[in-house]
Amino acid sequence: MPAPLLSPYHILYVDDEEKALHYFKEIFGDEYTIHIANNAMDGYRMLQQYGAQIGLLLTDQRMPGPSGVELMEHARKLNPNLVRILVTAYTDYQAAVDAVNSGRCFRYLHKPWDPDELGMIIRHALDYYHALIERERLLAEKAETVRNMLSADKVSGLGILAEGLNHHLRNALTVVRAFIDLAPMKLMEEIGGAHPRDPSFWIDVQNQAQSQLERIQSMLARLAEASHSKRLDRTDPCHLSSVINEMLEMFSAQMKEKNLKVEVSVDPGLPPVMVNGARFRQMWRLIFMEELTHLSPGDSIHISAKVRQDGKGQNHLVMYVRDTGMWESADKPVNLFDPFYTRSRKPDDFGVNMMACYVTMHLHGGTAEARHLEPRGLELEFSLPVETNPEPKKEEDFFRSLLSHEQRWKMRDEMVAA
């Protein structure tokens, strides 16, 4: 049974001397995954093919065609984290020094290289590359943590706002509604019981006012419900395909009336997820209501889902809703989850429904995102962790890991200085 490789990252060695390539692969091929090329162009194509999987590039300086320094410069643009080592003859000393000083390479080696020394350098180089990758991952993870904290603050703030609006505005709206209901009767009393010349005007005014009052009260109620800031209990097993079928049946008449085409690609074999059943179904009702609101006759909707694993090994049920609606360029997808967002084509339409979907996912420990599609359309992505109680990553773990990688950076600087 072969021994495990020392690093998951690959090495690319580029040299026009076939013996040097063969010798390198013979020595290190059992410890690392090695790729070889005898010119810069072939080496660059390998870098494109394997991407970030290649962590170390060793290249000779003088080769037919582009030089090693030129290859390193292009490689740096392709993958800035790639560790680059220039292998030179003594006559290329100044080119090597310039390459190091300009930041184009990690260090340089003279030919012929010593296998033991080169083995140590390779281990340090790949360890450094791993530190770079981990550093980026940790920073991205921290950025996601900050983003979630901001989302929690936003949800909490909306909850306080909604409670205040409900408390202070509902009573005032009740009084205004009572006045509007009594207005036609009081008008007839004022004119002695005679019918006004244009009764339809007063009926329309009353209907419009009542409609707007109902809309405001409904928005307040949905805002209050949507921004409830406590984490939801996920105790209800739910099959996504069943929920989608339920929504299709519920909105079938409206979909047919508007001639909307709906395609569902949800595998019935997807495992059930634990959710808050009422809020999860409400979220899908609101999604369908939003699609009915902003899509035009003849547009289509495609719903799909899959299980995806994140960088921490945690499984997520990722649900997609893609439509072919015509969204104006001024309608930025990020604004879709703003409760007071109005679309450019429908200035009276607020985004409370989508904010409710955003909050529902947040309180399930998930995320909600929106993005434009080309040439037209919108994609909604809802990611829900399958595990109901994922253990949050502790702050001290993050900083301990970050300090460890900072020490690797220091080791690298000391090694280069030596």
Automatic annotation (TrEMBL):
Keyword annotations:
Phosphoprotein
Q: What is this protein called?
A: Response regulator
Q: Which Pfam families match?
A: HATPase_c, Response_reg
Question: Which residue positions does 4-aspartylphosphate occur at?
Answer: 60
**This protein's superkingdom?**
Bacteria
Q: Which residue range or ranges hold the Response regulatory domain?
A: 10-126
- Give the organism, scientific name: Prosthecobacter fluviatilis
Residue ranges annotated for the Histidine kinase domain, each copy included: 164-388
Q: Which residues cross the membrane?
A: none
What InterPro entries does its record include? CheY-like_superfamily, HATPase_C_sf, HATPase_dom, His_kinase_dom, Sig_transdc_resp-reg_receiver
